[in-house]
Specification:
310 residues; alpha/beta; Rossmann fold; ten-stranded mixed beta sheet; 10 helices; 14 strands; 27% helix
Length: 310
């Protein structure tokens, strides 16, 4: 078994994609080995298909019934922003979205709704990503988010820059919501994972980019809190994010991160990404900003972390 310092030597690239050794996730786990005992705060899974890693991880977290109650209306927020195929890793893997929907039904959800304020044209993004087909096949609803009338304004107490935002009605009207981002590089925010994924539930994203992007990302996390964050790292967009330019930007990493804490899950996922491409935590400024606002913690040693190997 490789130690944490040897991980980079384990990367094997084959053509347009790459298979990253599971030791990357093992190393993240090792760095938090002194975490507390008790209810699981964070699960790191590796080596399986999306459905397998999700099933094992949600079991470690106490089952979907811990987060979704019978009769609830559930909103799911994957990353479905781009007119890109699953192999190009710009969106959440549709197999994972399907697995989460099925788990919500099993937990007794009355309704499951999926939506995303896309960057590319919404119909093409929904279709090319494979997410719309997966959502409909699993019996859930996929709603558009391309009109301002689908949003309403809310105040954000405690925010520094983003004092208010127009948020999707479908999310605000739900009893709970689950955040399902993918792991990828971002030209402006450096990384886009759980915290950054909330930009897909707001109408005016231009404000973020003109008023300190990192602070606005952190501020947005005060507006609404998901009951669970599931980071899809089955494939990782390692370069030219958030959309990618070619298939060579994507690497097969077969990992997943799950937590109720957006800052913690993003910290763990960024550490994992750093094993692929240099990405020190301090370059992802919104992590520390979110911790300062009380959104979550970057101190993984304070958490009870469990690991799943498949």
């Amino acid at each position: 078994m490789l130690n944490r310092n040897e991980f980079l030597k384990s990367i094997a690239v084959t053509g347009a994609a790459a298979m990253i050794s599971a030791e990357g996730a093992s190393s993240v786990m090792a760095e938090a080995a002194a975490g507390k005992k008790g209810e699981t705060d964070l699960v790191i899974a590796m080596g399986g298909e999306p459905e397998e890693m999700f099933a094992a991880s949600i079991k470690k977290m106490g089952g979907m019934g811990r987060f979704v109650k019978k009769g609830q209306k559930v909103f799911l927020k994957p990353n479905a922003a781009w007119d890109r195929t699953p192999e190009q890793a710009a969106n959440t893997n549709p197999a994972l979205v399907s697995a989460v929907i099925k788990a919500c039904w099993d937990a007794g959800a009355a309704d499951v709704i999926v939506s995303e304020h896309t960057c590319d044209e919404w119909r093409r993004s929904y279709q090319t990503s494979g997410i719309e087909a997966a959502v409909l096949a699993a019996g859930a609803k996929m709603l558009p988010a391309n009109e301002e009338s689908y949003y309403r304004e809310v105040e954000i107490p405690g925010a520094k820059n983003l004092k208010k935002a127009k948020i999707l009605n479908a999310l605000l009207d739900a009893d709970c919501w689950i955040n399902i981002p993918c792991l990828k590089n971002h030209s402006g925010a450096r990384m886009t994972i759980a915290m950054k994924n909330l930009m897909g539930i707001v109408w005016d994203r231009r404000f973020f980019h003109t008023n300190n992007l990192h602070q606005c990302i952190a501020d947005m996390c005060l507006a609404t809190k998901p009951v669970l964050n599931i980071v899809d790292a089955y494939r990782t967009l390692k370069s030219n994010g958030p959309k990618g330019r070619s298939d060579s930007d994507a690497v097969v990493t077969k990992a997943m991160f799950m937590s109720t804490d957006m800052v913690a899950v993003d910290t763990a996922a960024t550490r994992f990404f750093n094993r692929i491409v240099d990405m020190p935590l301090e370059t992802v400024s919104y992590l520390a900003m979110g911790e300062e606002l009380g959104v979550g913690t970057m101190d993984l040693r304070s958490l009870n972390i469990e690991q799943v190997k498949l």
